Amino acid sequence: MKVLIADDDGQMVRALGLLLRARGDEVIAARDGAEALQAATARHPDVCLVDLGMPKLSGFEVIEGIRAFSAVPILVLSGRTDSADKVRALDAGADDYVTKPFGVDELLARLRALVRRSGHDGAAAPLPEAVVRLGEVSVDVGAHVVERGGVPVRLTPTEWKFLETLVRNAGKLVTRQMLYREIWGTDDVQDTGYLRLYVSQLRRKLEADPAHPVHLLTEQGMGYRLVLEPQE
């Protein structure tokens, strides 16, 4: 696998490079945003690890630039913990977000999950229906297409996997541990804020009133539930 590491922290780049090369990956290192965007254009990586605070071009600009020509999975590695930065990165086109410092096992699990989803090679249970409707939103699970009022809605691979897991278990409680396993391949995820962030993003894109959701419901302290038809 060809991995682009875009980070101006030389020690971080070296450490990640050693880790990835040890498992057989090819590593492309970029120390600023302009170099990262050029490398992504010329070298066609299979996955990109992008820091947000880089010189010349910010990580946000790099993500937007890559998304202009590629659907390659993008994982943000950043020390920024503000949810606004996470939302901005996801809106720019990032697929997942890991806050520094992070555990090696979690990072590798997220990488595996991103690459697996981008290739659509994960074995999954058959879906009960080809198309699911949530009010004016239609979810074509076979084609991986979501439309709202006939207008396509872009979901990141992580948002799609979150939604797909809920669709496969429509009407049932989906626990946080189940979501961790389905999305990241492990239930050993320490920051539960990631799930809140992604469900917030999905509500903003899919619910008529994100502040008062009727389809993507939170089961406090347990997980989430997808309701296909809102209860009166």
Automatic annotation (TrEMBL):
Q: Which InterPro entries match?
A: CheY-like_superfamily, OmpR/PhoB-type_DNA-bd, Sig_transdc_resp-reg_receiver, WalR-like, WH-like_DNA-bd_sf
Q: Which CDD domains match?
A: trans_reg_C (cd00383)
Top-rank taxon: Bacteria
The entry's keywords: DNA-binding, Phosphoprotein
Biological process (GO) annotations held by this record are: regulation of DNA-templated transcription
Q: What is this protein called?
A: DNA-binding response regulator
Record's GO cellular component terms: cytosol; protein-DNA complex
Looking at the record, the residues that make up the OmpR/PhoB-type domain are 129-228
Pfam families xref list: Response_reg, Trans_reg_C
Q: What organism is the protein native to?
A: Galactobacter valiniphilus
